[in-house]
């Protein structure tokens, strides 16, 4: 059901024409929607807000707003999405990926899934839910960029035992994934 | 080291080689072994798969749908969209929210953001804030965003209507009542009077809003007269509001009153706000060990030199730093920031942190670093 708000088209038209009142109104909505991320984003907040403004301008210029929701809700979604995206990309460490003879920075959670590993988010979440709390904790520490010495200090487990546990958690995840895959009905 | 580089030895270290924390000879050995062992390269691929699995979070679109569903703007659905529009089962979503504090916190942030937008809707049309068109930052020479932001937030008296006046008065009242942001120098009695005045203003404008329809005259002349009378009364109320706001601001400035917020990385602990005076029964701010620093967000301060002291529970001085200047920080609200390095502070102890300006304590925080 289209719930495009009354006057949304007019606001968009005035906004794109650069009418100050419309620009201020939209900017006010964006600032309000983004305000809750200010402390989390810290120094990045202004850049994030500017990204939102540019993105909104682009989307509206390209007619991407289809009226599935009110304009205000649409702007909220874009703002929230942009801010959360920034939060999620704020990793402490860069990861490395083995690529033939070279070693280069890579994002292990983006597009570097190995062959045979489905990027199906639902499957990943189901597997993750089946894993033990300790496994989730250890691998979270890994993703946060802790060395095994730091993890050993933090968990009180010796370095050797810790490495073995992490390996077991990885193999266990593979087993669960294969088990869930074998139960899945084939998709058309 | 090279002699130890068997497959088992290598495979055990792959997770840390991938996360970039394996160093020196260990890293070199792993790389050398990977170059010649295809089985271990398969293990590396599996390790990357596990990283993707354990690093999986709910797609942002799913979180957005959840919040929108709560707001009643989207048809109720028992599942969310994943990446690429794939449908996530409600079971997977619920299970993940059950064990993932990061996603729970992001969901809370989204709800907060949504509420902020809805509050504005409930309050009516925007108040006609001063208008300055924005343009892409990169295309401008230097239109200071900060100044523009402040201009945007400044209330434009010429366009302030009664509803927004009532809202402004109510908001001011909320700010006052929330505590922690006002001057310790503004006496309780005076502050109480100010609050009462603001409350009276809010009630008066609200009551008048209710009366307005029945008082509307049937003819245009009568309507004009009623409108002029309301405008005159509105002007009086605005003048009174400005006087009260100025009084509050002066009180804060004169006394050097300070509001303090503390934050550590978002995924570890939410922002905690504390009053300038810590209460004896106040819970300490708990910071997980391993954080490098925390930031104090300060309002009501200029560039006066500050002293930061940290005492242990027995009153022994652990740290003292004088001559600090709070740095002006970016953000919607004007504020300054002082950072406190945590490396020198002991874990587990109840610590008292005091911020002094001109020898006078302006903020006190209780702090504990949790091992």
Classify the helix fraction of chain A into a percent range: 55-70%
Mean pLDDT of chain B: 64
| Number of DSSP helical runs of chain A | 9
Shape of chain A: elongated
3D architecture notes:
The complex is a heterodimer of chains A (188) and B (371). In chain A, 62% of the residues lie in helices and 5% in strands. Chain A has helices at 8-16, 20-34, 38-41, 45-61, 71-88, 121-130, 133-143, 148-155, 159-183; strands spanning 95-99, 102-106. In chain A, helix 2 crosses helix 5 (71-88), helix 6 crosses helix 9 and helix 7 (133-143) crosses helix 9. The longest helix of chain A is centred in the C-terminal third of the chain and has 25 residues, at 159-183. Chain A is elongated, with a radius of gyration of 23 Å. Residues 92-113 of chain A have low confidence and may be disordered. Chain B is 47% helix and 18% strand. Chain B has helices at residues 7-18, 24-36, 38-54, 60-70, 90-99, 101-123, 145-153, 162-178, 188-215, 220-255; strands at 80-81, 87-88, 259-263, 272-274, 285-288, 293-299, 306-311, 317-324, 327-329, 335-341, 350-357, 360-370. In chain B, strand 7 (306-311) and strand 8 (317-324) form a beta hairpin. The radius of gyration of chain B is 28 Å and the shape is flat. Classes of the chains: A mainly alpha (188), B alpha+beta (371).
């Amino acid at each position: 059901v289209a719930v495009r708000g009354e006057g949304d088209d007019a606001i968009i038209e005035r906004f794109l024409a650069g009418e100050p009142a419309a620009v201020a109104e939209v900017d006010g909505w964006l600032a309000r929607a983004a305000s809750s991320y200010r402390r989390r984003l810290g120094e990045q907040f202004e850049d994030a807000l500017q990204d939102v403004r540019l993105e909104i301008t682009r989307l509206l210029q390209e007619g991407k707003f289809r009226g599935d929701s009110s304009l205000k809700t649409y702007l909220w979604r874009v703002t929230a999405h942009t801010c959360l995206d920034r939060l999620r990309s704020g990793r402490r460490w860069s990861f490395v990926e083995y690529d033939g003879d070279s070693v280069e920075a890579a994002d292990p959670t983006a597009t570097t899934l190995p062959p045979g590993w489905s990027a199906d988010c639902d499957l990943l979440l189901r597997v993750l839910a089946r894993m033990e709390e300790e496994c989730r904790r250890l691998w979270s520490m890994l993703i946060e960029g802790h060395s095994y010495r730091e993890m050993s200090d933090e968990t009180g487990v010796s370095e050797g035992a810790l490495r073995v546990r992490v390996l077991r958690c990885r193999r266990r995840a593979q087993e669960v994934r294969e088990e869930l895959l074998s139960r899945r009905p084939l998709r058309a | 080291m090279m002699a130890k580089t068997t497959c088992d030895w290598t495979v055990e270290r792959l997770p840390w080689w991938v996360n970039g924390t394996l160093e020196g000879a260990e890293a070199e050995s792993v790389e050398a072994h990977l170059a010649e062992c295809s089985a271990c390269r398969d293990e590396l691929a599996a390790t990357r798969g596990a990283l993707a699995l354990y690093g999986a979070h709910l797609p942002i679109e799913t979180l957005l749908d959840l919040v929108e569903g709560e707001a009643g703007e989207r048809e109720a659905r028992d599942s969310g969209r994943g990446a690429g529009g794939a449908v996530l089962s409600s079971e997977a979503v619920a299970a993940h929210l059950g064990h993932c504090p990061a996603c729970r916190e992001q969901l809370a942030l989204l709800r907060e953001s949504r509420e902020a937008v809805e509050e504005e809707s409930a309050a009516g049309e925007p108040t006609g804030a001063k208008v300055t068109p924005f343009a892409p930052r990169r295309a401008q020479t230097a239109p200071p965003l900060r100044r523009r932001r402040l201009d945007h937030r400044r209330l434009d008296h010429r366009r302030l209507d009664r509803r927004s006046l009532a809202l402004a008065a109510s908001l001011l009242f909320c700010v006052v009542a929330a505590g922690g942001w006002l001057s310790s120098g503004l006496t309780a009695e005076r502050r109480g009077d100010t609050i009462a005045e603001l409350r009276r203003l809010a009630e008066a404008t609200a009551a008048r809003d209710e009366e307005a329809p029945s008082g509307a005259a049937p003819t245009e002349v009568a309507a004009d007269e009623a409108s002029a009378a309301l405008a005159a009364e509105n002007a009086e109320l605005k003048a009174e509001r400005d006087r009260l706001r100025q009084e509050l601001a002066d009180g804060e400035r004169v006394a050097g009153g300070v509001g303090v917020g503390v934050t550590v990385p978002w995924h570890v602990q939410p922002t905690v706000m504390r009053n300038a005076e810590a209460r004896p029964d106040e819970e300490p701010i708990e910071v997980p060990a391993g954080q490098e620093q925390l930031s104090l967000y300060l309002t009501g301060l200029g560039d006066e030199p500050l002293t930061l002291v940290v005492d242990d529970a027995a009153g022994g001085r652990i740290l003292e730093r004088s001559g600090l200047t709070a740095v002006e920080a970016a953000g919607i609200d004007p504020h300054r920031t002082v950072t406190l390095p945590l490396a020198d502070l002991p874990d587990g102890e109840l610590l008292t942190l005091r911020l002094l300006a001109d020898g006078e304590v302006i903020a006190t925080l209780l702090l504990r670093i949790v091992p």
